[in-house]
């Protein structure tokens, strides 16, 4: 399933919808302004908070946490000792790891688990300016988590740039 994210609205305090490939509202990204650290909430269309993204305050390399029901779900960090600047590691609460690599700032990258593609993020399929797609490849994958990972990685890469 593909989800469409409008890139130009990525700012703290801005709220915007992520739509599914049929144009229906799938998630609302609610940017929390006036917070000490960068915080976003990914909400279901009914207003229920599905995932919360928070910038870690005391992190040397920069990191964001992904929370579900106020419990840590994952931590997203730029990978240490990577020849590729655009390589991130997502460490899940259970210890499993996802790899994110590609051209992050160009919105052309992939999220993989143990070499298996979970999601592909791309502008290539779209003609709408400032929009990219998160194509969740596996049907049993957690779409909200993969969208949250894409949002985290892009925010972190933009700050590093």
From TrEMBL:
Entries under InterPro entries matching the protein: LOR, LOR_sf, Tubby-like_C
A UniProt-annotated Pfam family: LOR
Q: The organism sits in which domain of life?
A: Bacteria
> Which family is this sequence assigned to?
Belongs to the LOR family.
Q: What is this protein called?
A: LURP-one-related family protein
Give the organism the record lists.
Streptomyces hydrogenans
């Amino acid at each position: 399933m593909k989800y469409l994210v409008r890139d130009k609205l990525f700012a703290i305090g801005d709220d915007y919808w992520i739509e599914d490939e049929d144009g229906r509202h799938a998630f609302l990204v609610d940017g929390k302004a006036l917070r000490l650290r960068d915080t976003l909430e990914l909400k279901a269309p009914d207003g229920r908070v599905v995932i919360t993204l928070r910038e870690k305050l005391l992190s040397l390399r920069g990191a964001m946490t992904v929370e579900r029901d106020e419990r840590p779900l994952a931590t997203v960090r730029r990978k240490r000792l990577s020849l590729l600047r655009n390589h991130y590691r997502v460490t899940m609460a259970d210890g499993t790891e996802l790899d994110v690599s590609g051209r992050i700032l160009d919105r052309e990258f992939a999220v993989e688990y143990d070499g298996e593609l979970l999601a592909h993020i791309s502008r290539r399929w779209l003609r709408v300016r400032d929009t990219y797609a998160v194509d969740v490849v596996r049907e049993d994958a957690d779409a909200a988590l993969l969208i949250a990972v894409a949002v985290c990685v892009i925010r972190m890469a933009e700050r590093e740039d």
